[in-house]
Structure formats: C-alpha cells, structure tokens
Write a structure and sequence with these properties.
Blueprint (H helix, E strand, L loop, with lengths): L1 E4 L14 E4 L5 E3 L16 H18 L7 E9 L5 H11 L5 E7 L9 E8 L1
Parallel strand pairs: 4-5
Antiparallel strand pairs: 1-2, 3-6, 4-6
Length: 127
C-alpha cells in the first residue's frame, strides 16, 4: 500500500503534489525514461500545452502496458525548457492525475535533447 508522507512539522506542498510517498509492501516498481512530446506519427506539437498533453497521453499508454494507472504513480519529475510558461505544464499534470497526488519535482533547463521538445516527464509507479 502506498501512503502519503506529509509531516505536520513542515510547510504543506506548494501545489497539487505530496512531499513523499511511502511504498510499504512487496510490489511491482516501474521507472519510466523521460517521456517526450512525440506523437505516434513522429510529429511534435508546437505549443507547450499540446506537448504536455502528448507527454501525458504517452505516459498513460506506458502505464497501461505495464498494467498500471496514474493511481500507481508515486513520483513525477518534470523538465521544462526555461522561459516556457509553467501553467500549462502543471495544468496538464493535474488533469492527468485527477484527484491522485504524488511526489513531484519540476526543473527548468536551458534545453532538451531535441530543440522542438519543450518538456520531458519521468515517473515512478508502484503497484
């Protein structure tokens, strides 16, 4: 069973995430690579909002193939090209996760491996 870890001795999270998630049982553990905004046909959307939607659609597909769902995600790491508006990225994450909360890290970077990519997301899921 996964359990939220949010000690009352520290400030609450600044957005819709948890400080930590404790997995306290034998389970299956999935680590994704950085998932990028490439559609199945190889195209990359222009806007950060569309790219974020593609990334989360790709993550949903990976989770489904592993017989998991967003409810199994315990950690999200997001890399966003500096200067891009973070609101669409956070909105896409919140929409994809729904009421589920996970530990979350968001980092701005000068660039990613391909110039067209504006964000990349990796998750850890436990079931």
């Amino acid at each position: 069973m996964n359990r939220a870890v949010s000690p009352s001795e520290i400030a609450p999270p600044a957005a819709n995430y948890l400080h930590a998630v404790l997995s306290a049982h034998p389970s299956r553990l999935l680590h994704t690579s950085g998932v990028v905004p490439v559609r199945p046909d190889g195209s990359v959307p222009d806007s950060i909002a569309e790219q974020a939607a593609v990334v989360w659609a790709n993550l949903h597909a990976i989770l489904a193939d592993a017989e998991m769902s967003v409810d199994d995600i315990v950690s999200v790491t997001t890399y966003v090209v500096a200067g891009e508006n973070l609101n669409p990225v956070m909105a896409a994450r919140d929409a994809a996760l729904g009421d589920h909360r996970a530990a979350s890290t968001l980092v701005t970077v000068p660039e990613l491996a391909q110039p067209a990519w504006l964000l990349e997301v990796a998750v850890v899921a436990v079931r």
